[in-house]
Amino acid sequence: MIKIQFKKEDSDTLFSNFLREDHHKARLKNLVIYCKSIGMNHGEILDFCQISGPTLASYLKEFQTGGFEALKKTKWRGQPSDLNQYIDIIDSDFSKKPPKSAAEAQSRIEELTGIRRSPTQIRSFMRDKLGYRFLKAGSVPGNGKDDDNIKELEREEFKKKLSSHYWIKPKRVKG
User: Fold this and answer.
1) Residue pair 27/48 in contact by the 8 Å Cβ criterion
2) Which residue from 19, 34, 144, 170 could staple onto 14, CB 3.0 to 4.6 Å apart?
3) Which domain holds residue 149?
4) Shared-domain flag, residues 56 and 114
């Protein structure tokens, strides 16, 4: 059993950190150490926090060596996406003709790479990895009351240039 001496201020700090931490793993670590600070035994902590014995031991060792700062750190980084190796191919294809929806992007990515992902994952990939954003174009210029030919031609040109929704890659302005 790992023994740690706690002060009253430590318990208060752990509880306030538990309430305020952004990452769920950091909150769990603070809760586990808080439970230890109020005198719960290891079995009770395991049942209450629904963690394993090795996890409890690693959290306690982290707190022993690094204090409160160690509880804020998370080592989990996730897995790299299989689509990362095809970023250049997908980006060049999308720059020629941007997809109008996540579903269209999903089918085109599957054609290019053979990898199928959900529309939510496709949106995230396009936004975070490729730098695209979804553009919803505004209304057609003019209110329709003027029936002169010039206004009508302007409206037709606008409709030809833009569809109502599509993904774009913003141009970077150096300055």
Assistant:
1) no
2) 34
3) 82-168
4) no
